[in-house]
Write a structure and sequence with these properties.
- By secondary structure, the protein is mostly helical.
- The chain has two domains: 233 residues, no CATH class; 285 residues, no CATH class.
- Helices cover 85% and strands 0% of the residues.
- The longest helix is centred in the middle third of the chain and has 43 residues.
- The N terminus is likely disordered.
- It is a multi-pass membrane protein.
- It is found in: Cell membrane.
């Protein structure tokens, strides 16, 4: 932890110097502007690192959690997943899109050298976040019986999750404020600290309740979900320390502002709400689709055949919880990129530079493909041993197939995350919401026949069609407005796809050879996964560096990595 803190401190200072130089350039209107691609790469690196480490922590806990729950594992995981789906929707409603809206508007006012307005905007946003957080937490706590879908076990789980909603809006809003300054490091480290504390608490309580006290599995799940509140307090503390140690820097920016704009408090409230409301729908997009699955899967399956509730809970855990935990590791890559690109696009949109916007859109798509496609294909290739490592042999063949299909689907989910953020960055929120509604209607129309005839694969296929329609409509709209250079993107996409397919084939071969080891144990499959990740991952990195594909997407700085790896 000491080493991590030291590294984080140094990188914080580097980022501050970059941001300070950037702001000085804007204030004096002299010198060259900081390259937007470099900003996007640097910001994405921080957010990607924070998201990946957080998601990995959020997945690794599954192994001991699974062991300690024993025969109650699938039931417990289904309960955990159902509770978190509902919680995620309420949390998005509580946050009300304010953090992303704050990041966007702070970047807008900073581009005008009006840092004083940015501070006032943050304070007004904080007031909104606290009020909505308290209101939604009370609704979730006292209204829990209304949202269970007939599962009484969900009530204590929702009660425990309501506490987190009191804390997370303030934490998320503060992250948005820093992101508006292009400072992604505090958000990344806060996110990691939040997840680490959460996982430690949930594992400790699961072990004590299930193994030491031999208690009730519902109580253990409730404590595991209460860990969200404990982790949130840790994440907020990291942000508070960051601001306190740099308070003089932020005050200096305010003191040197133009102070030409006088924005009334009521106008700030209106700006926040106008920007935030569409973020609720778009930010909750994946969660809304998951809730559709949660509330429709069992009723449709009961019509399709005679299944017990326990069996349907197991199936839901396989496609709606287990696979989701793992694919969200790769989707977090897209989420990190989405958070980074919104304030950058907002600045370009404020300046009215359509060519710059077009370039940033192309960069965003290419960076998304560069990390998402190989990650998703790689996970699909090792789906069987990966599933055995995390979830054991329960429904082994079906679970592995669902994980592989979900891995392919994660490319669409990640793409939706990015294109929705792009629309928000250029203030096309209402249009993006309309496109999402169209995709949701497609999902609803296809849900019943696909689930009825295809079982656990039905919800995933319906989701794929829904998000495909939404993504197509958004990308078409962006092209109509800013003339995206698809020829430029396609050439590099071909290189990414070809290299990713090679990575997939290599990982698949290693996973297939691993089956001859003759063991279904976790340790053996963990070794297979690690060997596949290291060898196939190095193949991808080596190839994109050797062919200079990485340079064209990530910029000239990547040459330093090539030299360190002795690739010529």
């Amino acid at each position: 932890m000491i080493g991590l803190t030291a590294v984080g401190q140094r990188d914080f200072e580097i980022i501050e110097v970059k941001v300070g130089c950037q702001m000085a350039a804007r204030s004096d209107q002299t010198g060259n502007q900081v390259n937007a691609q470099d900003q996007m790469v640097a910001g994405s690196a921080w957010m990607t690192a924070g998201s990946i480490f957080s998601r990995i922590l959020g997945a690794v806990y599954i192994i001991p959690w699974n062991i300690w729950f024993g025969a109650f594992y699938l039931q417990g995981n289904a309960l955990y997943g159902k509770g978190y789906n509902i919680y995620s929707f309420f949390l998005i409603a509580a946050i009300a899109g304010v953090p992303s809206a704050i990041a966007k508007q702070v970047a807008h006012y900073n581009a005008l050298n009006e840092y004083g307005v940015s501070v006032r905007l943050y304070k007004r946003g904080l007031e909104i976040a606290v009020i909505t957080g308290i209101s939604i937490a009370l609704l979730m706590y006292f209204g829990a019986p209304l949202f269970t879908g007939g599962d009484a076990h969900l009530i204590p789980v929702l009660h425990s999750l309501a506490w987190a909603i009191l804390i997370i809006p303030t934490m998320s809003l503060t992250r948005g404020y820093f992101q508006g300054f292009q400072q992604m490091a505090p958000s990344a480290l806060s996110q990691f600290a939040e997840q680490l504390i959460r996982v430690v608490y949930m594992l400790a309580t699961a072990f004590i309740i299930m193994r030491v006290l031999h208690g009730n599995w519902v109580t253990a799940v409730s404590q595991s979900t209460f860990a969200a509140a404990i982790g949130a307090m840790g994440g907020l503390l990291v942000l508070g320390v960051y601001y306190w140690r740099r308070r003089h820097h932020f005050r200096a920016l305010v003191a040197n502002s133009n102070n030409d704009l006088i924005v009334p408090a009521n106008q700030l409230y209106r700006e926040i709400i106008a920007q935030a409301v569409p973020f609720i729908v778009l930010g909750a997009g994946i969660t809304i689709f998951q809730l559709i699955d949660q509330y429709t899967f069992a009723p449709i399956m009961h019509m399709a055949g005679t299944y017990t509730d326990a069996h349907l809970n197991d199936l839901f855990a396989l496609f709606g919880v287990n696979a989701n935990k793992l694919i969200m590791i790769t989707i977090s890559l897209a989420s990190a990129l989405a958070v980074t690109v919104v304030p950058l696009l907002s600045e370009s949109y404020t300046r009215g530079n359509k060519q710059e916007i077009s370039t940033q859109l192309s960069n965003a798509f290419l960076m998304f493909e560069f990390v998402m496609i190989p990650s998703a294909l790689g996970m699909a290739a090792i789906a069987r041993p990966l599933n055995l490592v995390f979830y054991g042999r329960s429904h082994e063949a079906l679970a592995a197939s669902l994980l592989a299909f979900s891995s392919y689907l994660s490319i669409l989910l990640g793409l939706y995350t990015v294109v929705a953020a792009l629309m928000q960055g250029i203030s096309q929120n209402k249009r993006a919401v309309r496109y999402f509604v169209v995709g949701t209607i497609v999902k609803f129309i296809l849900q019943w026949p696909l689930v009825y005839f295809l079982g656990a694969f039905g919800p995933l296929i319906a989701t794929a069609f829904g998000f495909t329609v939404t993504c197509y409509l958004i990308i078409h709209s962006l092209d109509q407005q800013f003339s995206i250079n698809f020829a430029h993107i396609a050439k590099k996409t071909n290189g990414i796809l070809l290299t990713s397919l090679g990575t997939f084939a290599l990982a698949k071969l290693i996973a297939w050879l691993g089956t001859f080891l003759g063991s279904e144990g976790r340790v053996t499959n963990f070794l297979i996964v690690m060997v596949a990740v290291v060898i196939a991952g190095y193949f991808y990195v080596y190839t994109v560096l050797k062919t200079r594909l990485a340079d064209t997407i990530l910029g000239p700085r990547i040459a330093g990595l090539r030299r360190r790896l002795h690739i010529h």
